[in-house]
Design goal:
By secondary structure, this protein is an alpha+beta fold. The chain has eight helices and 16 strands. The structure holds N-(5'-phosphopyridoxyl)-D-alanine. The site of N-(5'-phosphopyridoxyl)-D-alanine has 14 residues, from helix 6 and strand 13.
Length: 288
């Protein structure tokens, strides 16, 4: 089957889909993006993802590339054309194409938009959930506006690579005071010894993950006590459970951090319960 990508108004063969060399996303990482899960042919939490896209766009002063309902139609069309049942779509909007100059291009420069989609084998995710993953900690060396979902992900890519070379799957950012921030591409959670679920407040210093927001609804429905509260690496290492969340993975249990085993080294029951209930509680939009 031929993969199809949407680029600036056209549905193109994925292998031939391209963006101009002077696109500001390419030259300045001047753009924002979203990644959204698709499960059983349903887009998970589309409204929240598009709301966050709107916020990211407005924070860096890029106009919506098209009306929101039209964008939702493009997303569904890309998913259908790629026959995605379980997987994700990726959406990127940049400030568009202009002669290289740091300042914004002339008003009226059209933002560039790309939408791609792919299938992800649920068995691969299930295997990770059954086994748990390993993480390392890393100093947070990113800019101050990580609340905006920009395509400027070089520190995140370097941190993930560092994790890979250490035999781990995620790098957890820690600030200068030893307080946990978030993963290179995930939010971080721990279950305290009394069973309370903790995650760092999202007002500043991390991305407000959509999975994080919906997981709060899930915890409430399941009656799991939850507090938005900062925690140190030391406290996390002594947790009953640690897990990470993102639209690509819902919640992966973390069983080892910096070579230290978390609890008994096996995935915990809280993340499992949450994962099982998540899809039922999240908003679902059919791709058809
Ligand atoms: N990343 N924090 C960071 C730095 C992220 O990049 C992500 C998501 C999250 C979780 O957000 P959400 O629950 O909305 O996916 C937190 C995506 C999946 C990525 O870059 O591929």
């Amino acid at each position: 089957m031929t993969r199809i990508a949407y680029v600036n108004g056209r549905y193109l063969r994925h292998a031939e889909a391209c963006i101009h060399v002077e696109d500001r996303g390419y030259q300045f990482a001047d753009g924002v993006y979203e990644v959204c899960e698709v499960r059983h042919g349903m887009i998970v939490d589309l409204t929240r993802h598009l709301d966050r896209l709107g916020r990211s766009l407005s924070e860096i002063r890029i106009d919506w590339p098209m009306h929101r309902p039209a964008l939702a139609r493009v997303i569904r069309e890309v998913l259908r054309r790629n026959r995605v049942r379980n997987g994700l779509f990726y959406l990127q909007v940049t400030r568009g194409v202009a002669r290289r100059d740091h300042v914004f291009p002339a008003p009226g420069t059209r933002p560039s938009i790309v939408v791609t989609a792919k299938n992800v084998d649920p068995a691969v995710i299930a295997a990770k959930n059954a086994k748990g993953i390993k993480a390392i900690t890393a100093p947070d060396n990113r800019w101050d506006r990580v609340d905006i979902k920009t395509v400027g992900l070089l520190p995140n890519a370097l941190a993930r690579q560092q994790a890979r070379e250490a035999g781990a799957q995620e790098a957890i950012y820690v600030d200068a005071k030893g307080i946990v921030k978030e993963g290179a591409a995930t939010n971080v959670w721990m279950v305290d010894q009394d069973g309370t679920l903790l995650t760092r407040p999202a007002a500043h210093g991390i991305l407000r993950g959509i999975t994080r927001t919906t997981l709060m609804d899930v915890a409430k429905t399941l009656g799991i006590p939850l507090r938005e509260e900062e925690f140190t690496v030391e406290r996390m290492l002594g947790a009953r459970e640690v897990f990470i969340t993102a639209a690509t993975s819902i919640c992966f249990p973390v069983v080892e951090i910096d070579g230290r085993t978390i609890a008994n080294g096996h995935p915990g029951s809280v993340s499992q319960k949450i994962r099982e209930a998540f899809f039922d509680i999240a908003e679902k939009t059919s791709i058809w």
